[in-house]
Amino acid sequence: MLILTCPYCGVRADETELSPGGEAHLTRHGPGSSDDDFHGYLFTRENPRGVHFERWRHAYGCGKWFHAARDTMTLEVFGTYPAQTTEPPRDICDAITARHPGWNWRDFS
């Protein structure tokens, strides 16, 4: 079972209390963007085997959105952080690198 800690209220919640929101750190394109940009936003997603950054909502708690870094193969959680953060915090990246030497976070900008 996947257990995540909400960075806002501090509650350790299992996945039945949370709502998944898909991949984190996407560049969102809307009205006024090119067709290619909007198509990429709607349909292009990573589906890695391993480290992944996701959006979650504490649906049956404080109701806030947050990001989580986890391993999709083992369900190991490296940490959670506020959704307004534009890139993973250094301590989470360090925890991932300790478990997966040579790993580096891609440039989303």
TrEMBL record:
GO molecular function: sarcosine oxidase activity
Alphabetical list of InterPro entries matching this protein: SoxD, SoxD_sf
BP GO terms, sorted: tetrahydrofolate metabolic process
One protein family per Pfam: SoxD
The protein, known as: Sarcosine oxidase subunit delta
